[in-house]
Structures are given as C-alpha cells and as structure tokens.
Design goal:
The chain folds into 2 domains: 10-253 and 453-473, 3-Layer(aba) Sandwich (Aldehyde Dehydrogenase, Chain A, domain 1), CATH 3.40.605; 257-434, 3-Layer(aba) Sandwich (Aldehyde Dehydrogenase, Chain A, domain 2), CATH 3.40.309.10. 39% of the residues lie in helices and 21% in strands. It has 16 helices and 21 strands. The protein has helices spanning 46-65, 68-84, 86-97, 101-119, 121-124, 159-170, 185-197, 211-219, 232-244, 267-279, 299-310, 324-339, 375-378, 394-402, 417-426, 464-469, and strands at 10-11, 13-15, 18-20, 26-30, 37-42, 129-133, 136-144, 147-151, 174-178, 204-206, 223-229, 248-252, 257-261, 289-295, 343-346, 365-368, 385-391, 409-413, 431-434, 454-455, 470-478. The strands form 5 sheets. It has a 7-stranded mixed beta sheet with strand order 15-16-17-14-13-18-19, with helices on both faces. It has a 6-stranded mixed beta sheet with strand order 10-9-8-11-12-20, with helices on both faces. The chain has a 3-stranded mixed beta sheet with strand order 1-5-4, with no helix packed on it. Helix 3 (86-97) packs across helix 4 (101-119). It is globular, with a radius of gyration of 24 Å. Residues 1-7 have low confidence and may be disordered. The structure holds nicotinamide-adenine-dinucleotide. The site of nicotinamide-adenine-dinucleotide (NAD) has 29 residues, from helix 8 and helix 9.
Length: 489
C-alpha cells in the first residue's frame, strides 16, 4: 500500500524516510478474507538493502547521541498516532491477515502497550555506579548495538514488528525491518506513522522481500544484531546464518502448546478458555492451545469444550487462515488423524463463507483420542484445531508435553494449587499458566519460549530485551592523584 487503503497497489519499501519501489520484481499479497489480490509487495534486492543500511548508518550518529529521554519523546507521539489511526490499522490487519476485526483491533492495542513500555525505558534503566576502590568509580552504561534488523512473520503484522521496533530504537539503534511478504502492509503504515511522529529519516527502514533478503540481512557486514520471529525451520536457518556471521541473534520459532486438564478443573472456565485459545486468530498464534492432555475422567469438560467450539463460526467470531496452502495443510492433518483412529468431535473441514467463497476458512475442530505419536500431536498445525490426548496420570501428561521439541507455552487447568505448581515446575516451556488458555506475559515481563521455540539467550520483549538491544560499557574513573594505589586501583 503506497498511499492509502483506497489506492492499494504497491507495498513499497520505506528507506531514509521515503517510499521506495525497489528495483525489480513484485509479488501478489492476497487477502485471505476473500482470496482477492490486496496489493503487490516489492521483492527487494541486495542493492535495496544496501541503501537501507546506508541510510541507517547515516542516521545513527545523531540518533544514538540523543539521551534516552529525548528519544522516547518520539514514542509518546507515535503511541498517540497508533490510537488515532486504530481504525485504519485494524482494517489493514483484518484484510492482510484475515483475523476478525475485534482480534485485529486487540493486536493494535497490544502494539500500543508495547510502545508504552518503550516510553517507560528511562524509568527502567538505572545504570550502576559504585566506588570500587578508594577514589575509583566503576559505572556501567547501556550503549546501542548499532544497525540492527527485525524479521517478522505473517500472524501478527502489527504486534510482532512492535515487539522489536520501539525498544530497539528507543535504546539508540537504527533498524531494518523485513516484514512477512504475506502481510507487509501494516509495517509500512507503522513506518509512516513513525515519520509523522518525528522519527528522523533513516532510523527505521522497511525492506520488503522473501528469503533472499533475509539471507542478505544475515550476511550483511554492517548489521550487528538480528531478531527473528517465525517458524522453527526458518528460525534455525536465520540463527545459524546470523551467528556464523558473528552477529548477535534471537530467533523465536514455532510452537506446540499443551493444556493439561485435570478432573477438578472449573468446567465453564476451562471450556471457554480452551476453546478461545485454540480458535483465537484462527489458531494462528504461537501461544495457541493445540494439544490438550486430559488426565483421568474429564468427559464432562470435553463435552463443554465441544459446545463452546460449535459456537465459533467463520466470519463471525472466527477469521480465515492465511492461505489456500494453510487451509489444505490443516485439513490434511485432520483427515490423517481421523484415518489413524482419532475421533472427530467437531469438524471444521470444507467450510466456506457465503459471499466470500474465495477466502481461506477452516472451522473449529476438536479431535479426541489422538495418540502422542501421531503427526497432529507432534507438529505445529497452526489452525483452529484441538487434539485431545487421554491419560490417567499427571506424570504421563507432563511426559507427553515434554516430549515435544517445542517449548513455548503450557497451561494447567485445576483448582488444586499444589498440583498446579507441580505442573508448572515440571513442564519444559518458557511461559506457563494456570487456568489460562494463552499465558502471554504482559509488559514489563518478557516474552520467549524454550527449546526449539527460541534460539538465543534473550527474550524478545520486556526487560529481557534491553540486554539484546544494548551493549554494556564499563567505565572506571579516578580523579584523585593522591589516592593510594595497589594492583587493584
Ligand atoms: P516463516 O518462518 O515462514 O516466515 C517468517 C519470516 O521468515 C518471513 O519474513 C519470511 O519472509 C522469512 N522466510 C521464510 N522462509 C525463509 C527461508 N527459507 N529463509 C529465510 N527466511 C525465510 O513464518 P510464518 O509462516 O510467517 O509465521 C508463522 C510461524 O511463526 C509459526 O511457526 C509461528 O509459531 C511462528 N511464530 C512464533 C512466535 C513466537 O513468539 N515464538 C510468534 C509469532 C509467530
């Protein structure tokens, strides 16, 4: 989208404060709501990336020389612009991603919260100072890393860019963002709003494209840090490539989140949370409940979950999935699981939305008696599908959860506090919850999974991101020549 939502044509790059068409090819951006062509996105070349890096380099000295407090002044204005433009941003997310408008709006609101966290950084970062020896002081200061990059996925086109942009920029870096080529429009709008907020040209640059440009980012000698969010397959590629080029990297990957349901769980609370977790954003959340481990006799809860799942209707409270390929992949998982003996309690295959027959819709699906060795139990389905596995033993449930190579989120549903703590202590996941379907930590807590859901040391948001986007300078000073001197001072 070059100018406004009415004249959608090319989703350009945004380099040095200006739209830039790139040099060569474009790719269609499809609207998953109805399958129409929404835009054409520029597929950038290495030359385009070089221009963006050069503009970031030119902007860096002045931007990084400002105080943190001066820099976050821009973010207060940007935050207000997000609020002012929330209807347009909501519509863009709805059209390019397919999620329903209320979910798209919630995503923008989360972007506002992330920006507010960046505004609070001057209150959070207290550099340390101590007299370490008579007359000798040590002091640390957080310095920006330099020119950094953020590579983002399709499923949260506003929120995930705002996981990284505000913190990285507020901390003094200049950035190249490479949005998903499936949902590139939101990021361009974000860059336009930053310019309106007064961000100096070149501090934030958008370079669109596909895997070629991601590889070029990982190889670029000037870019010093790379953050990535996407599938585990690509997270591994990016982490290996960026770190082998001696860059710091945090790469968040896919997920297979388990909810463990015990017989004493509150029935309504469990049913509504599980159904909302598996179906929200059409199951295309890295925090979505994808597998449920039912411990003991919980048929009454399974029945209520199915009632809730049946209330969720495409086009009303369930959006589309991202593409025709995604719809086919999800339906194939369901069909294979059924053939292997799973019982389909709620079937979301072969649905379409009247008037939007070209859209990519999958209805909510609940499968019971899934076995841990089935593909649907092990792999990321990324659709509104819940696979229920049965066991009679809590340790067996934890074992099923921990056999996953992922480790993003896990939640337990029970009214027994010590059982809840036992599960939280023993599951191998970075974000755990009790009686909550989507245990997302909110700011200032940081977001990040374990195992193959995250490569690298830091989490991507919150306090933990501060050390990713900065490097510590340790200053030691002595101004009193008469001070006693030994080997330590
Ligand atoms: P993806 O991995 O296909 O794409 C992510 C980014 O990588 C895009 O910008 C894309 O252009 C680029 N890319 C794709 N293939 C590449 C390749 N071979 N080499 C280099 N770059 C490549 O992910 P997606 O389909 O856009 O997003 C969905 C995935 O993201 C899911 O697996 C989901 O779990 C994950 N996700 C994880 C988190 C988290 O916090 N862990 C958050 C959101 C999404």
């Amino acid at each position: 989208m070059s100018n406004s939502s009415q004249s959608i044509e090319i989703t350009t790059n945004f380099i040095n404060g200006h739209h830039s068409n790139g040099q060569t090819k474009t790719m269609d951006v499809l609207c998953p709501v109805d399958g129409s062509v929404l835009s054409k996105v520029v597929l950038s070349t290495k030359d385009d990336l070089n221009k963006a890096v050069k503009s970031a380099q030119d902007a860096f000295p002045a931007w990084s020389a400002l105080t943190l407090k001066e820099r976050v002044g821009v973010f207060y204005k940007f935050r207000n612009l997000l609020e002012k433009n929330i209807d347009e941003l909501t519509e863009i997310v709805h059209l390019e991603n397919g999620k329903i408008r209320s979910e798209a709006r919630a995503e923008v609101l989360k972007g506002i919260e992330l920006t507010e966290f960046a505004c609070s950084l001057p209150q959070m970062i207290n550099d340390e100072i101590q007299e370490v020896s008579k007359g000798v002081e040590c002091r640390t200061t957080h310095m920006p890393v330099g020119i950094v990059a953020s590579i983002t996925p399709f499923n949260f086109p506003t929120m995930v860019p705002l996981w990284t942009i505000p913190n990285a920029l507020a901390l003094g870096n200049c950035m190249i963002v490479k949005p998903s080529e499936q949902t590139p429009i939101s990021a361009l709008k974000i860059a336009e709003l930053f310019k309106e907020a007064g961000l100096p040209d070149g501090v934030l640059n958008i370079v669109n494209g596909d895997k070629d440009i991601v590889e070029a980012i990982c190889d670029h000698p000037v870019i010093e840090a790379v953050s990535f969010v996407g599938s585990t397959r690509v997270a591994k590629i990016v982490y290996q490539r960026a770190t082998s080029n001696l860059k710091r990297c945090v790469a968040l990957g896919g997920a297979k989140n388990h909810l463990i349901v015990l017989p004493d769980a509150h029935v309504d609370m469990t049913a509504t949370n599980v159904a909302a977790s598996m179906s929200g954003c059409a199951g295309q959340r890295c925090m979505a409940a994808s597998a449920m481990v039912a411990v003991g006799q919980v048929d009454h809860i399974v029945e209520r979950i199915c009632q809730e799942a049946r209330k969720i209707k495409v086009g009303e409270n369930l959006g589309s999935v991202i593409s025709k390929e995604a719809k086919e992949r999800i339906e194939k998982y369901i069909t294979e699981a059924e053939a292997e003996g799973a019982k389909v309690l709620v079937d979301g295959r072969n649905v379409s939305l009247p008037g939007k027959e070209g859209g990519f819709y999958v209805g909510t699906t609940v499968l019971d008696y899934v076995r841990p060795e089935m593909s649907i139990a092990k792999e990321e389905v990324f659709g509104p599908v819940l696979s229920i596995m049965r066991t009679s033993d809590i340790d067996e449930a934890i074992k099923i959860e921990n056999s996953s190579n992922y480790g993003n989120a896990s939640s337990v549903f029970t009214q027994n506090g010590s059982m809840a703590n036992y599960v939280m202590d023993n599951v191998s996941a970075g974000m755990v919850g009790v009686n909550i379907g989507v245990p997302v930590p909110r700011e200032p807590f940081s977001f990040g999974g374990w195992n193959e859901s995250r490569f690298g040391v830091n989490d991507i948001t919150g306090k933990s991101s501060i050390s990713f986007w900065t490097k510590l300078k340790k200053r030691t000073t002595k101004w009193n020549p008469e001070a006693w001197t030994n080997w330590m001072s």
